Description:
By secondary structure, the protein is mostly helical. The chain is built from five helices and three strands, in the order H-H-H-E-H-E-E-H.
Amino acid sequence: MTPFVINLALAVGWAALFSAFTLPSLATGFAVGYAVLWLLSPIFGDSRYCRKLFDLLRLTLHFLWELLVSSLQVAWDVLTPMHRSRPGIVAVPIDAKTELEITTLANLVSLTPGTLSLDLSSDHKTLYVHAMFVDDPDNIRRDIKQGMERRVLEALR
């Protein structure tokens, strides 16, 4: 049995224990089951299932941080009389292979204020990004590759 199936069985068992097969009861059972599986993971061996939640949480927190910082940067540039924006298009080589990885990365880049995913090369190895503040294109590439892309790949692989 896979850890996910065991987790579902624990969620159903939790709901049966409290005689409440409602969505909140099943969700609570799923969370408790996940915690049990995580605590018992050293006994049953290392499982990607137990680490995936933390990878998704790290991706979410990284995105929220980027969202906050870039929102403040764009707002500051719009509200102050001196505009510091230097827009440009940057070609970012990517390591994402699957459609889900590429789509997730492109959407998270587009959701971040000041950046927009424009296109993907025909060989699916380069993402073209329009950025509002392109003082150093290498810095933009590095931020996307070592920040957003790395966390997307950790969460989805």
